[in-house]
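Can't attach files on this board, so I'm pasting raw text. These are the components:
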Amino acid sequence: MSTSGLLSILPLLIISGSAVIAMLLVAIKRNHRVMHAFTVLAFLLAFLSLFIQPYEVPYMIAPLFVVDAFALFNTGLILVAGLSVLFLSFSYFEQREERKEEYYILLLLATVGGLVLVISQHFISLFLGLETMSISLYGLIAYLRKRERSDEAGIKYLLLAALSSAFLLFGMALVYAHTGRMDFSGVGASLQAAHEVPASVVAGFGLMLIGVGFKLGIVPFHMWTPDIYEGSPLPVAAYVATVSKGSMLVLLMRFYRDINGYEYTILWWVFAIIAMASMFVGNWLALLQQNVKRLLAYSSIAHMGYILIAFLAGLHAGQEAVIFYLVAYVITSIGAFGVLAMLSDKVRDAELLEDFSGLFWRQPWLAAIFTGMLLSLAGIPLTAGFIGKFYIVAAGVDAGLWLLLVLLIVNSVIGLFYYIRVIAVMFQPLRDEQVQAKRASLPFFGIFALSALMVLLLWLGIFPSGLIAVIRNMMLTMS
Amino acid sequence: MILLLFILIPMAGALLAWIAAAWNQALPRWIALLAMTADLVLAAGLWWQTESATGPWLSTFHRDWMPRFGISFSLALDGLSLLMLMLTFFLGALSVLVSWNEIKERVGFFHFNLLFVLAGITGVFLTMDLFLFYFFWEVMLIPMYFLIGIWGHENRMYAAFKFFIFTQAGGLLMLLAILGLYFVHAHNTNEYTFSYFALLNTPMEQTTGRWLMLGFLTAFIVKLPAFPLHTWLPDAHTEAPTAGSVVLAGLLLKTGAYGILRFVLPLFPEASQAFAPWIMLLGAVGILYGGKLAFAQTDLKRLVAYTSVSHMGFVLLGAFAFSEMAYQGVVMQMITHGISTGALFMIAGVLYERLHTRELEKMGGLWPALPGLGVVSMVFVMASLGLPGLGNFIAEFLVLAGSWQSQPWITVAATIGLVIATIYSLRIMQKVFFGVSWREYKLPDLSFREGLMLMPLIAVIIWLGVYPQPVIRTVKPSIPTVVLAPQAPYTDVAIHPTK
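---
Top answer:
Structure tokens for the assembled complex are below.
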């Protein structure tokens, strides 16, 4: 690999290097503040290094990686998401008694995995990235190990992720057995050359789908989502919801395009059924939740269903819509979990509906942010979520997916019901003891990050043209 | 530019009111009142100049917004929009006055929501871009949800929920139809645009047109509301604070009617005519059914709410009659219903402030205690039942006379609605002001502020009843061609065969 090759994956190198330095830092002296500052710095540096691409994209690092506009954009998205999670983490972990510093090492390592996923174009790099991320996530999810549900969540994720990785590997093996290739475009070309796709390859894709579907948390591989969201520390839940799911989605898009997935009707139908099931199961189960973390978990399942509709709508408008929705979804999810994290205290997380009662009168700004995030999830105008949903529906109408769209609308209405329910709780009048309670001061970093996300949410809801143009140009260079 | 001001003034006022509440509790009220009056004066100024206008469009404003999709920030104003705006600002100012004493908690946030709803409604009446229309359509919802949900009566949460979910479901169907129209237009002409004027002449197949038209229509008849999608209305109107009820009945329902006149008829002339008999039937059923239910209510606000269902039936009837007379009647009905029902809700609010009940059974014999309020109520009860000399009579007469040509039997059925209206309207007077008082009341009669808000309403309703010509003249240029000269014959679905 040449120097230019190294330069073009600079963000990845910076993050992995920082992970090593971070380990050394902990060995020298434990200091939460220093550790946090160092990690923030690493993410910032990595993000800035995105803008000094020395050579023209797409730049191939054969056979494992490809750095194209699409990869760069998603690298940026992951880094920004990671950075926001970091901002929310400091105050959350500061008030916990456990050792806090290793959290940042694990977060850096998980991000390395995510960054590998978005640039990989080969089964090997896919698997490496996936496992790096998963293994760090085991530790992250079970990080607050004194909590009763924390280790349960960690073990659950460990078992299921290992199982799904096994399926993924077996699927890859089957595909490799027939095509003899491991790079995505090679697989695609080999399948094109064969007139008929043999059953073993179809089975291989099916098995791979289990591995991918597990990471995305789509029905029927969604069982882990609510438990993991509930049991893991809140910043980690935000990370799982955005970076882990997002990077897998990006990988799926790349893989699907390289193997010409749109030509296989059977794959289309499999995804269509998964999309329908995800929307209904997610929204239906979210309806009666009393626990906001679980509610967000089920709603994220439904949102993956929405994204799949755009995904099915085809290469052009569809994939643009997926990316736009992903951006909106990342902002909203981190924002929502961030509000929960701000409200949590030493003993427990703010997760029950009653924790939010009268929030609008106790913490107006925090409640306004949460309302904005929920409305964005519900797809109400002035928020990024609305433009995202509009984009999906537009792509769907263009592709003529009427059945899926009608189901999307039915589901949006169901979804509205439970988002509004949470908002309604926040507007309840204060109880007596709440009136007397002193208003807690909020950590600066957290509020700063949340306010920035809120501004971004509104900005994208009102002036989406800029981002749309970026995504559109990026997608045009891809095809 | 002035069109943009119409929307920006309430929005700026909304923010200011919220911020100002931190210093002074009375300030938000004055800011809101000032914003609405400023808009009203601006609109009146525009109306003054209409005499000299050439062509239907009095003023336009256009900026690109999302060129990727052909979305523009496009506003335009014709006679119909102008009248609706006047109504919006007039009732908007009054709804600030009406909540002067009623709302004591979280005054800033209340006025923020109130002004934001009004800004959304203004946007709906002005926009000529279908995406922007949907945008404003949704923007109205959230603040209205808060108005009902925070400041409403006992059962407010349920009502707010139901309101939100009904209208949102209808709205999403409309979004689907808007996008359908957008892509049909793009496939046929290769031009991707949401512009109303471009979409007006979209070539499309008959079945496509009918499906799309149904998508639009559903959203509008949920909002109107028409039987059988009206069930959200009684709850929302009853539980909302007085200002909320006034805005709901006076303005929000009109956005549904406006949508039918502005979008359904001109965009889908063929489909509208094909479905017209069925929709008129729906209108007539609404008139009778709403009237019957109004008669059965014991809650004053609920009663008035059901009269809205009944009165909005006339809108549906007249809009799909395809005659100029009926069209004029529909616009008159939108205005007079806004005035008279708004006034009735204010009266209900005034009574509630004094008696702390909405139950008709607990009222009675109030005339000696409240003679002033009695007289005012009498005027609007008479307006509601369609007494000649008051605006509602002109509206209903025009609608019925205009509909007779196309569907005589349905019109006959609708006319019976006037009798029902007389029954339920007189029942209000009897139950509230006449009869035996079951308790000796000592109540203050109308205060200066209450007089100030009810007197202009009386003046307007009488003016519209005696001299409706300015309204009719203003609307005339905006009547779409399909209404003036319906071309396609009433096809297979006609209920009553035309000769």
